[in-house]
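User: For a benchmark we're assembling, each entry needs the component sequences followed by a predicted structure for the full assembly. Here are entry 17's components. Please fill in the structure.
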Amino acid sequence: MTGEFVLIGRLRRLIESTGLASPDLLVGVGDDAALWRFGDRILAATTDSLVDRVHFRLDIARWEDLGWKALAVNLSDLAAVGAAPRFALVTLGLPPTTRAEDIERLYGAMLDLARASGTVLAGGDIVRSPVLTITVTATGEIEVPAGADWRSRVLLRSGARPGDLVAVTGSLGAAAAGLRLLLEDPVGAEARAPALVSAYRRPQPRLEVAPILVTAGIRTAIDVSDGLVADLGHICEESGVAAEIEGGRVPVHPDATRLFGADALTLALTGGEDYELVFTGPEVAVGGVAARSPVPVTVIGRIFDGPPGQVRVLGPGGEELRLERAGWDHLAGGDP
Amino acid sequence: MTGEFVLIGRLRRLIESTGLASPDLLVGVGDDAALWRFGDRILAATTDSLVDRVHFRLDIARWEDLGWKALAVNLSDLAAVGAAPRFALVTLGLPPTTRAEDIERLYGAMLDLARASGTVLAGGDIVRSPVLTITVTATGEIEVPAGADWRSRVLLRSGARPGDLVAVTGSLGAAAAGLRLLLEDPVGAEARAPALVSAYRRPQPRLEVAPILVTAGIRTAIDVSDGLVADLGHICEESGVAAEIEGGRVPVHPDATRLFGADALTLALTGGEDYELVFTGPEVAVGGVAARSPVPVTVIGRIFDGPPGQVRVLGPGGEELRLERAGWDHLAGGDP
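Assistant: Structure for entry 17:
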């Protein structure tokens, strides 16, 4: 079947060809969230689904973690556009064998994250489905001070410019390493590397960093869901630029390095699901973020004027590293 | 498995028990759409899923009809709260065998309805899934004139009062009759009763009637998705009242009567998927709607002070009709 990104491109052209638009639609298909001018406010809206045996496996997943994660991945999209969460709608597709107490565990953890992030669960839908599917739509708000241009308050994929630095919050590879451990040893994984397993099960959306990015003058960001190289590639496509990453600078999670040695860099570059923020901007703006961010910020590369969408990863001697897989294409398959 | 409505009740209590709320959440779980105060505007948001072999069957459904219907059922929820559509997010769960041209047919018809209804398709998600799943989240706006109370501009399930009349737009039973024909005779159904098949495949959300209801002073409505008796039952539950319908007054679609005789009334009472609006209100308000509505409005019964949630259907002699099934519970099963 046609890959996800090719298909999205076709549908985007189909939608654009109809001329269906509104002056209130500030940002549509092609970014982490849609942005809509709603009176004197800007509304951000995003939706993401988790499907059994595609995005998780019920044999190694716990119901409460699924609830947490389904909301977390949507809040991460809000963070990536600079929006503060408002409310969410939750759709559950449930196999007939589902137990009510499992659904309550799912909701319980989702409510924990909702409370911690200031998100209100405002409704949704429950349907029968042969496969467990959790779809969340999250809305957020971009606060634009009176007189300010909304463009100065949002983070988009399309704002990267040659000369920008590329930086990332936190560390990478932990979630992919956690998943690998869980697949190898479902019972013992948590004791071997609790931080990795937790990174996979309970990702922390970087909602607290997003306003710091905006205030520091950053205009371009994405969250690491598909994998660092793939997600930075999305920025480069939408911005019409290329990027170079120095492999040695990528902040690989230390537990991933301890357990998987040199493989850990590959997990950090292509594993995905870290839900850190990758952003680009002038040196002074990136420096401003690093000074104020409560989580570490690491400069890992730079944007240059090259083939749009291209991301090269350089090894210690300046040679280009070859990656087997740039990241996660949800239609192409692979392990959940 | 626990039924949909029981489960929704448990989750609603779970959500409410967390004390997670916001003064901006005007209406949450338990109505057709969530209502959120967003600056000087009121945002309505709703989500509904269609799942293969639960809500449709790919062997008798056409891709373009699925696209139309997935958006239509959400727009119908917006109409039911009195909101005008703004934008929608579309999530497709696609089996690996899906052809790109089928997805484009689905999107093409969805775009036709989007254009006709003033809805902008603003984004969404595409994921792999073993079962074709189409989830739409639609947003709308409730316009509240300066100085007016928002409660006077919305339609809720909770506003029915003893003495109110119960009325319905258009005719009922057509969609269920169309589905029955398609199941009996997939090839010949359309020639035998094009209006019924079209009612099933291409429901028309009553967006044009909703503002007429609001202006006439109606405060209570729901759309007929689960079936007239079940949906009126939702109004009665949320309002703490009971209702009585006179079976002989229910506007059964004439083609359904022609093909299915006395069974047509059962289809009209319990078949569902008509996406007409059922509403309640004082006689003068219902009369005002009937005078101005572009589609027929029929008074079918009344609200009284009785067991909350109870809906009785009376036959020609005033005797109560026994219904085998009140309507469609999405978790309980049955034909799609």
